[in-house]
Amino acid sequence: MSTKTESWGSRVGLILAMAGNAVGLGNFLRFPVQAVQNGGGAFIIPYLVCFLVMGIPLLFIEWSSGRFGGRSGNHSTPYILDSMAKGRLWKYIGVFGIFTNIAVAAYYCYIESWTMSYVYHSIVGTFSDMSQAQVAGFFESYTDIAESTTGIPYEAVIFYIICLLLNTFILSKGLGGIEKVAKIGMPLLISFGVILAIRGLTLGTSGASDIFPDANAWDGLNFLWTPQFDSLTSPKVWLAAAGQIFFTLSVGMGTIHCYAAYLKSKDDIALNAVSAGFMNEFVEVVLGSLIVIPIAAGYLGLDWVIQNAGFGMAFQTMPYLFQQWGSSLAIIAGVCWFGLLFFAGITSSLAMGTPWMGFMKDEFNWSKNKGAWSFGGLVLIMGLPTVIFYKEGLFDQYDYWAGTVSLVVFAFLETVLFSYIFGIKKGWAEINSGADIKIPRIYKYIILIVTPSLLAWVLISSIPDWIDKVKDNDTNNKEWFAKEFHAENFDGEGKNSGTVVEVSANAVKFSFEDTKKVFDKVTEKVKVIDFTNFKEYKFKEKKNQVVVVQKGDIVKPNDIIATGDFTNNTLYKFVGRMLLLSLFALICLIVYFAYKKRVKEGRATL
Predict the structure, then answer these.
(1) Whole-model pTM over 0.90
(2) Exposure on the CB side of residue 299, measured as CA atoms within 13 A
């Protein structure tokens, strides 16, 4: 039987590492966007409810499962789950806890490398005197590996590899290296966050301009923190809130199990789990809501924020907004903001390497060094396609299937295992063993009934979307290789036609009737208004792509607008899905060989 050769140096280090695992880019980038897209204050109540009845129970489940498996020398989910139930199936369910981390790390480290690059560009003054459009264009150029913003060929690839090497080097030092980064990174992250949050709180109307005369940072705060009780009946908002909880707490990934497996048998998990969870919530709900949205609203207005809320806001707008503070403060703010994102990213990405390393150490006696560098190699192989084909949608496939679907599936299955197969009686005793706090007994029944029911609802409600993704129903250009290019939907529902307003040999621009959301300050609610929107397509002359519509033509979605040689994004999306399936199959195969090895050594369970 494998024995533990590592343990956490201190309780503070463990809590900071666990919090660092949870506190990631989603706290500062995804949470504000989800809140804005789901009605601001309308999102907060479902979000907090989901935290209490799904987030906290899952933290209890994963901390206690990890410590339980760790007693038997298991430090990764395949054999942590296997130790909790009879039968060969559960070790393969546990594959999700390794697969998800490698797949997510593959694209997560790419985002992390953006923050590293933007720290560099903030220091050297790249964004000085850039307009908002130019800052947004910089991001587009950066993610196009054929272009370079620094004169370095393949800049995005270079920064990605540097970022991955840094992660791998720290991982090779084991838990001690992770703990040191957490002890340095988490205080710096919170310090940077507080500095920027204070600016968000004090900006007020001072950022208003002739172009955005109604800009007001307080509008952003009011929008986020004015409760809208009608959201309690909206399934869409509840699903979004539940999804954010997965992202923000890193549950359903297997990293918490791995970290907890290095605890001693009677170490507290109850207070540790709650402490790490609430530290994450403080960073997300307090700091995360006081930076991007108020600062953007303070310079661009709340209506602009509502209409343009997206993941890229942090990179496409914040450098421009910082320039409004003067060149010196812009550098400080840029370093604080992108440094904050970098530390948020690396404390999470480091956790993603530990399940693979723990498994390979337990089953094949691999050293920390070998485990870390093999993890880095797998991530590099899986991740380079997300860098090279970012614009073709391969990145989004990883994010959806590994960063969303996989989390929900694994969380549901581990909850069923914990409550009904391992048994809630044993599970509740395990949670309370060595506990430094008294957990309200109602959580026993929340774990038994409410949490699995909510997860099942999220799972079942998501199935139609899974089918749409596999069928590529989000595009009219489904063929991998085609001689014709069809117009995509103009408005969100694909009901309206477009009118050709500009044409050149290799470009065409359409106008169409669309709707957008604006904030009504009188009713303090979001309302929908009609407006005329525009969409432009650009084609490549070297591939003989030629526009076949003329100015004034009325074009419906799916009409042919150009001919030539086209390689559609559906090819890259399919490749992304196949890469993920191949990774899952590879890990299943490794788990199978590990099982055979255990049988040979006489330590396999039936």
Answers:
(1) yes
(2) 17
